Amino acid sequence: MNPTLSAESANLDALDDKRRMPRLYAWSVFALTFGLMMSDYLSRQVIGAVMPALKLEWSLLDSQLAMLVSVVSLVVGVLTVPISLVADRWGRVKSITLMAFVWCLATIACGMAHSHGQLLWARAFVGIGEAAYGAAGAALLAHVFPARQRAAVLGAFLSASLFGSVLGVVIGGAVAAQAGWRMAFFVVGAPGLLLALLYPFVVRDYKTVALDSTKSQGNASAERPGFQRVVREVFASRAGNFAFLASGLQMAMPAMLIAWLPTYFSRYHDIDLKKAGLMAGVAVLAAGVGMIFGGGLADRLSARNPRRRALVPAVYSVLTAVALMGAFALPPGPLSMGLIFLGALFAAAQGGCSSAIVCDVTHPGVRATVAATMALANNLIGLAPGPLIVGMLSDHLGLKLAMTLTPMLALAAAFFFVLSSRSYEADAARIRARVAA
């Protein structure tokens, strides 16, 4: 086995166990970091609620509307790793404060745009601000809370993306209906500025652990693993590589729903902007419920048959495709609406499963890099292209048919999950043997 990676992981765990932070301080850090995560996703997802108004005012094509959604995920995917590296070197607290100011001011700038090009640039800067926030925020929380609470705290932190997404489409739709789409951006962007101002006065950073330490543990050298070695470790597993592809493709489903459901409800169900945003928010909430419980169900079903760790998310993907293709193919009505919510329930249920698969089949010493790689795959394969594919198809086929065809990506995700299951047990066993050696 590679002693460097094992020693590095063991040393960090030992340091974590020795830390004790005052409870009031720890939960204050959590509250502020959670609040900024909500602001992050409010700024990201409000666009879906105002797209019908933008189309009406500027006579935009659906593909142009889709660009406004996808540009954020594209920028986040490209810049997540490099900006995370900068944050680790410059400092998490300073980086988070600057990032929050960037995405909040960029969101406010969206409300001042007078053309599609100006709005597209402003949305790109929203992505620049948000690119590494999740990684930097998680790093701070992992430092503040002890290891025994880490999974629960980080899970709660990530759930802020759900609440932010729901509020983004609901508040955006309500404000746009009452005061216009420009005010929706102002209302969503301003509160985050207050949190950003407060953050550096409450939260203390921690010193970055040196990667080139000469300390050793037993016979293990603690020198920094080279870049090529880390890349080889991240992509060494067939099961993990297929999981990257599967998760990325499946994430196009919640991205499509968040971006296009308000417009779909407005066009085909004859619902006003406020109610369309509310109904889309319910669908996003259903996706969050599926994400929370999907991983737990997979854990139970795979307890005796490890291959089910990857087969269960394959089933989620198939159910998503069948429900959504049926929903958008049917005439608007209660059955169509019910199938939309059912499809949303399974759309993101694979999230925890995919993360567990790649963690199970890669060395503990590179799991942070693996998590960043999963985020990269989700953004570049699914979150960015998904809404854009719908928009481009809609320009030629209509939005209804576009949303009927796009869930075929979920069937492709199921195929790759099945491929992942075929080598999962062997890959996981090989990692366990290396760590135990």
Automatic annotation (TrEMBL):
Residue ranges annotated for the Major facilitator superfamily (MFS) profile domain, each copy included: 28-422
Where does the UniProt annotation locate this protein? Answer: Membrane
Pfam families registered for this protein in UniProt:
MFS_1
Question: What InterPro entries does the record tag this protein with?
Answer: MFS, MFS_dom, MFS_spinster-like, MFS_trans_sf
Q: Which residues cross the membrane?
A: 24-43, 63-87, 96-114, 120-145, 152-177, 183-202, 242-265, 277-298, 310-330, 336-358, 370-393, 399-420
Keywords for the protein's UniProt record, in alphabetical order: Membrane, Transmembrane, Transmembrane helix, Transport
PROSITE patterns found in the cross-reference section: MFS
Bilayer topology term: Multi-pass membrane protein
The name of this protein is MFS transporter
| Organism name | Variovorax robiniae
